[in-house]
Amino acid sequence: MLELADSLPAVAIGHQIVLDLYDCARERLDSVDVVRTALVQTARAVGVTIVEEVFHKFSPWGVSGVVVIAESHLAIHTWPERRYAAVDIFTCGSSVDLHRATRYLQRVFEAERVVKKEFRRGSEVA
Amino acid sequence: MLELADSLPAVAIGHQIVLDLYDCARERLDSVDVVRTALVQTARAVGVTIVEEVFHKFSPWGVSGVVVIAESHLAIHTWPERRYAAVDIFTCGSSVDLHRATRYLQRVFEAERVVKKEFRRGSEVA
Question: What ipTM does the predicted assembly reach?
Answer without folding.
Answer: 0.85
